[in-house]
Structures are given as structure tokens and as C-alpha cells.
Specification:
With 304 residues, the chain is of the alpha+beta class. It is 35% helix and 21% strand.
Length: 304
């Protein structure tokens, strides 16, 4: 009965069937009672006793049962949402750049693909998606998954396909003249074949996305303020990704892709505690692909 393509699709199908079953049960109960009462009290002038009476147990029952069902539906749906859109244990990270009218995918190890997303079957792959221009929508009909991809913000989506195959990816948000042509393919491979594909056709280090990030880091002389062991102007970036830091005002944040992106474009928005506000903003000076390159380079921790 359930799809064998995606673990998330199975969960959503089960929840949908539960909602359908609840609706059918209570609708049937109401109509059956209506018919019974209509037949029983159909005669005019029939003695109906002495008016309505209170029944506390019945009132508690028909108030408590729907409440508990609604709580169950909420918890069930919230857990599915968290699994689908929030961070979880995953084996692969793929950065996704959407732009009119194509999808570009960046893999661990430096591989890049246009309009082809390769993932392993039976494992969780987390997509970190952003748009370079307008709102797009990443839609995989066979997996029952759709998520808007926004400019200026990283959106995360977890894929957990169970069955190898080749499936269409669509843009489900009108994005301009060639919107209908903005398609890609999701290619689900057995884990061993995926590893073989990931290791094949390796690019030279300087041609990888992190290599381009290193060149940008050097071009804009970022090391002049972010040198390891010399942090009088800016924090040492070596190994900073994933750590919790304090901002001016006492707020604590985890250094992730969103924090790094904001710190590059608008450093005044999140000033690292203990350091002067000396970094110039770089808003409008980098494309989204260049920002992905810089962030990839910073994540690797080698910026000496």
C-alpha cells in the first residue's frame, strides 16, 4: 500500500491514511445517528419525555476524544516535519544553487553537476539550497517532497530515498520565461555505485569549489585580519565552523553556513564578542556561487 521510494513519503502516506480514516469514521457516525434519530422520532406529536438532561460523562467524552486525536495528529505531523526539514544525522551534504533556469549541485570532494542530483539509496542526504535570483521550488513528485528555494537564505531539505532509480525534479514556482524548462533528474544509486561515482573524475584541487574559495579568500586579503594566532582584528577562522561563539550583547550562536554568509555580507549584524567592528560589508560583491565557494573553504578549516 505504501510507497517504497522514500522513508518520508511512507510516513506522510500513513498520516494521510490516518486522517482519512478519522474523517470517514466520524462522518459515518454522525450520518448514522442522524438517520436513526430521524426514523425513531419521525411521527408528529410523539411523546418525547421531559426535555433535555445533562450527562457529564458524555460531555467529557466528546470533548476529550477529539482533543486527544488532534494532539496525536499534531505530534505525528511535527515529527515528520522535523525529520524532513531540520538537521539530522546524515551521510552526505550537497549544496544546491538554483538560478534561471537550471539547478547546480556541489558534492563533497569537489564534484559538481548541472541538473543531475546523485544520491545513495537507503542513506540520508541533506541538501543546502539557495537561489541566485528569484524564488524557485525544489519538487520531487515521486518522493512527495517540495520546498521553496529562496534568495538570500539557505534552505535545508533531507532526502532519504529507499529505491534506486531515475526520477524527475521540477521547479514548482513560476520563475520566468523558461520556467517550464527548469528540470533536473534525481539519480538514486546503490551505496557502492554512489561511492564509485563520487570518486570518479576527480577535479584538480584548485578547480574544486573550495579551491575557488581559497582564491577569493586570498584575493580579498581576508588573512590580514583572520590569521591563526594573531586575532587582534578578527577571530581566528581555523576550525571555527560548528563551534558556539558569543556575540556582542551576550547572545550565543553556532557558526554555520547562515552565520558565515551573514558575516561576509553584513558583518555589523553579528559582531563576534571581543573584536572591533572593522570588517567592511561585501554585499553585492559576491555571487551566490562565490559565497558557496568561500563557505566551503572556511568549513574545511585550512586558512593559514
Amino acid at each position: 500500500m505504501f510507497s517504497d521510494l522514500s522513508a518520508y513519503a511512507i510516513g506522510f502516506e500513513k498520516l494521510s491514511l490516518f486522517l482519512l480514516g478519522v474523517g470517514v469514521f466520524f462522518s459515518s457516525l454522525i450520518f448514522i445517528l442522524m438517520i436513526v434519530f430521524c426514523l425513531r422520532y419521525r411521527r408528529k406529536g410523539e411523546e418525547r419525555g421531559g426535555g433535555p438532561t445533562e450527562n457529564l460523562r458524555l460531555e467529557i467524552l466528546w470533548g476529550t476524544v477529539p482533543f486527544l486525536i488532534m494532539i496525536l495528529i499534531f505530534v505525528w505531523g511535527a515529527r515528520l516535519y522535523m525529520q524532513l526539514f531540520q538537521a539530522e544525522d546524515h551521510q552526505q551534504n550537497v549544496s544546491v544553487l538554483a538560478k534561471r533556469w537550471m539547478w547546480k549541485f556541489y558534492y563533497p570532494g569537489g564534484k559538481e553537476e548541472v541538473n543531475r542530483l546523485y544520491v545513495p539509496a537507503g542513506e540520508t542526504t541533506q541538501l543546502m539550497m539557495i537561489s541566485q535570483d528569484v524564488i524557485h521550488s525544489f519538487f520531487v513528485p515521486d518522493l512527495r517532497m517540495k520546498k521553496d528555494v529562496l534568495p538570500g537564505r539557505y534552505i535545508r531539505l533531507n532526502l532519504h530515498p529507499l529505491k534506486p532509480g531515475n526520477y524527475p525534479i521540477r521547479c514548482a514556482e513560476y520563475c520566468g520565461t523558461d520556467h517550464s524548462q527548469m528540470g533536473a533528474r534525481l539519480i538514486v544509486l546503490p551505496p557502492k555505485k554512489f561511492e564509485e561515482w563520487l570518486k570518479s573524475s576527480a577535479q584538480p584541487a584548485e578547480e574544486m569549489i573550495s579551491g575557488r574559495g581559497r582564491r577569493l579568500f586570498e584575493k580579498h586579503q581576508c588573512a590580514s585580519c583572520h590569521r591563526e594566532g594573531d586575532t587582534h582584528l578578527g577571530p581566528d577562522l581555523h576550525g571555527i565552523f560548528g563551534k558556539e561563539i558569543s556575540l556582542e550583547g551576550g547572545k550565543k550562536v553556532v557558526v554555520d553556513e547562515d552565520y558565515l554568509r551573514t558575516s561576509i555580507l553584513a558583518p555589523e549584524a553579528q559582531i563576534h564578542q571581543g573584536y572591533p567592528s572593522a570588517m567592511p560589508p561585501y554585499q553585492g560583491q559576491f555571487t551566490e556561487e562565490e559565497l558557496l565557494s568561500l563557505i566551503k573553504y572556511l568549513k574545511e578549516g585550512d586558512h593559514d
